[in-house]
Amino acid sequence: MSFSLPLGAAGLAALEDRLRHDLLTLNWRARAWLPPRTHEGQPVIDVLIIGAGQAGLAASMALAQQGIAAVLLDRARADYEGPWATTARMDTLRSPKELTGPALGVPSLTFRAWFEAQWGREAWAALDKIPRLQWMDYLRWYRRVTQADVRNEHTVTAVHPRADGLVAVDVQTPTGHATWLARRVVLATGRDGLGGPQVPAFMRGVAHAAQGGLWAHSSDVLDYATLKGKRVGVIGMGSSAMDSAGTALECGAASVDLIARRAVMPTVNKSKGSGVPGLTQGHHDLPDAWKWRIRHYINVQQVPPPHGSTLRVSGHANAFFHFGCAVQDVTQVGHALHVATAKGTFAFDFLVLATGFVIDWAQKPEFAPFARHVRTWGERYQPPAGDEDRELSDSPDLGPVFEFREKAAGACPGLDRIHCFCYPAALSHGTVSGDIPAISDGARRLASGIAGLLYREDVEHHFAALQAYAEPELLGDEWTPADTSQRILPSP
C-alpha cells in the first residue's frame, strides 16, 4: 500500500518536536537515582536487555521512565532487529491498526501519530491493516526518538547468574569477545525466546535446506524465489502457513498444497476474545487452575489465520487446502519428498514446516549455564486429566517481575536476576511480553518491578543518602520570631 506524501519529512519533524515536549512534560527520562557500580574495575550495567525488537525497545523506554538506563544487545545488524524485515512474510500485521503497541500511553509515540504525520488523516482512514515493512520502519523511528542504547551485531553466547548479585553475559562483538556484567538481565528474545522451531518427529533423517535438503521451517531465512516452478507443500494451516504459502505462490510456485491434521479450519480467534483489561492486568494473580484453563482452551481451539492472509492464498487456482491429513512419514525419493498422510501420499519438490515454535533449551545454548535450574509449570501444577498441554508444562514458572524461579532453592544463586520478557511468559503473566496488544502493559510491569527490586537491594545506600540530604527548603529569613510573652494570657 502506498500513498502520496502531503506532509512527509516536515510532518515527521513536527511530530518529533511534539514528542520531545510530551516527554519533557511527563518527566519521562526520570532523574538517575541508582548508585554507579563497578566490579574489579569493570563497570556494571544496571539492566541489560537481550533483544532490541519491539519488546526490548518497550522495556527500555519503560525503564527510562523509572530513571533506569538500559543497554540492549541484538545479534542483528542495525534496523533489522526482530522478524519484520527478515523472516516474517505476511503482507500486513494481523493486529487491528488502532492498537497502540509499545507507545506506553504517549499519544505522539504511537504508530498512528507517526503515520498521520507523514501521510495524513485521510490516508489513515483508508488504511486497513498496517503493512509489515511499514511497522518495521515505525520501530526504527521508535528506537531513534526514544534514544534506545542498542548495540547491534552483539551475539550473546552465555548467560551466567552468580551469587554475588551480578549476572555475567558473554558476548561476541564485531571487535571480539567480551564479558559484560549486569545487575539484572531481561530476555526480550521473541516468540521463540526459550527455544526455536518445532520440527515434528516425522522429519528426522530428512536433510534441512541448509544442508542441501528439500525442506525448511517457516521461520527460517529462505529465498522463496528459488521455489519458482516447484511443487511446494506446506505443513500447517495457521497464520505462518498462509504467509509462507502466499509468498511461494507470488514467487511463481507451480502449486502449493497446505496440509493440516485438523478436520476443519477454525474460524474464531478465541485469543482475541480474551483481550480485556481485566485479564491483561489480572492474569498473574489468577489461581493456577484458571491460568491453565484459559491458556489451554485457547491452545486447543487454535487461532485461525487472518481473513486477508487466507484470501491471499485461496485467490490462486494452484493453491489446495487439505484437511484431515495427519502426516505419518516424510521420505526423500530422488529429488522429491514423499509425504505420507492419513489420506494418501503427496510428492513435493520442497516442503515448508509451518509447525510453530517450542520451548527447547537445547536450541538456546547460551542459556545452558542456568536452563536446567529453571522451574517449569509442569513442576508447579498438575492439570486435570485430559487438559495436559506440553507447551504449558514446559513454560517457566515466573515470579511477579517475570523472574525465573529455581527448581531447588539455592541450587542456582542469582537465577531470579534474569527476567523472561518473551512469549513463554504467557502462562505466568498473560500475553503482555511480546504481542502488540498489551506490550506496553507488560513493559510497565517489568520496569516498575525492577525499580523496586533495585531499590531494595540498595536500601542502605538510599537511606544514607536520605540522612545526608541537606538541601534547605527554608533559609531561616522567611519569618520573624514573635515575642511570645506578648501573645499569651498573663499568669494567674
What does this structure look like?
There is one protein chain. It is built from 15 helices and 18 strands. By secondary structure, the protein is of the alpha/beta class. Helix 1 packs antiparallel against helix 3.
Low-confidence stretches: 1-6
Overall spatial form: globular
Q: For the terminal residues, how far apart are their CA atoms?
A: 94 Å
Total count of strands: 18
Q: Describe the biggest sheet?
A: 8 strands, mixed
Summarize this structure as a short list of keywords or feature phrases:
492 residues, alpha/beta, eight-stranded mixed β-sheet, five-stranded parallel β-sheet, disordered N terminus
Short description:
With 492 residues, the protein is an alpha/beta fold. The protein is 29% helix and 19% strand.
Summarize the helices and strands and which ones pair or pack:
Blueprint (H helix, E strand, L loop, with lengths): L7 H18 L11 E3 L2 E9 L3 H12 L4 E5 L36 H9 L1 H6 L5 H14 L4 E3 L2 E7 L5 E7 L2 E12 L7 E3 L17 E3 L13 E5 L3 H12 L4 E5 L10 H4 L3 H6 L5 H14 L5 H8 L4 E4 L4 E7 L2 E6 L2 E5 L1 E4 L3 E3 L8 H4 L18 H5 L23 E3 L5 H4 L9 H19 L1 H10 L24
Parallel strand pairs: 2-3, 2-7, 3-4, 7-18, 9-16, 10-11, 10-16, 11-12
Antiparallel strand pairs: 1-2, 5-6, 6-7, 8-17, 13-14, 14-15
